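Bug #2210: token dump truncated for Acetylornithine deacetylase?
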Amino acid sequence: MSSHEELQERIHQRVEAKREEIIALLQDMVRIPSVTHPPGGDEGPVQVYMANKYKEMGLTVDVFEPTEVAGIEEHEGWWPGLDYTNRPNVVGVWKGSGGGKTLILNGHCDVVDEGPHELWKHDPFSGIVEDGKLYGRGSVDMKGGIAAMTMAVECLQELGITLQGDVILQSVVNEELGGYNGTLACILRGYEGDAAIVTEPSDLKIEPGTKGGQAYTITVPGVGAHQSFWWEGVSALDKAIRIKKAIEEFEEIRYRQTRDNLLFSDPVLFPTPAMADSIYSFVSGDPAIIGVPYETKMELWIDVLPGEDLDEVTKSFEEHIQKEASLDWYLKDNPPIIKRADMRPIYPTQIPLDHPIVNDMKQSFIVYMDEEPKVCGFEAACDAMMFNKFSNTPAMVFGPGQLKWAHRPDEYMDIEQLIASVKILSLAIVRFCGVQSER
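Reproduced locally. Full output below:
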């Protein structure tokens, strides 16, 4: 057995020995609610926990609120109007001996609201394990990723490994709901690397690219009337249905434009590469008024893929809706109001498919999973965008769990994926940063 094969086996054995510790760390994190609710958020307590964990590991720890970073509020990537009181980032640095590459491992600790508890099989902050699944809000999005990257470093420390390059662990605030100021603050604080892995739930896929997109509110007008005199009105619901069909047509156009996008071409993983008919809110009329709906509002999201221009895609979407409205006898004179949602622009990004971090992640995956990994794009947007747009650190996505279980009742982390991700990340750190010595 070569020294490299021996190290691979030592990592495997160490991670398996720490299985219960890995699970316990994620349980602890899930049991500390950290819901984001703009303009504020409740990340403070879980960040105290993470800071203590990093200190126990002997890392150099930096705790700071985003607004403490000089010049951040004047930066083009800053999104205003948010309150960061008791919402600090926590960064832990494991210094190498020198001469190696620096790797950033990044994850956000904030979670979306859990919704009605009665919709959950278990309490949303229980962290209960059942049938190989760890349940709770944030278990997959993305405290599981933070737990994995943290325990990967701890495993290497316990193996007595001295790296050549540095490893920078970042537990950041304010990613959900298009925040991203937490990661921007880390960048402007001076944390740069030769690469970054954002440990979002990728289902263990290697993801060098992320989607961008734009949220919209479309307000469709009508003329209200008593229901017994419906002919006196114009139903905003009927007109909104016409706009909905136009949105469906636009998605068909986008399908033809994006089906061959290299990272999003797999028809099983991406039945619709770039969504447009993604309406997440639809309100028509007023239940207190029994009558013809005078207004309909719909909120939706359109995807933009790596290699595309966000402004060009959004412009074409708006023109398509306006053109359809102009063909309607009522909407041509009373056009719908198409408003971009009050959130930051989300740009698609991609790093080279042959970047060293991508190659190291692929090889590390093969060692422990005994198969070729899927290399594709991330299904959504995430903090990787901030690295790729506003720093010199190329960022990709890799982490445990399936994104489809996020933002819904009974969110869970698959335990075996969590354990596998710790092994893969541990070996990738070694490969990328280089080893000075082993104990």
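Output looks complete on our side. DSSP finds ten helices and 22 strands in the chain. Marking as cannot-reproduce; reopen if the truncation happens again.
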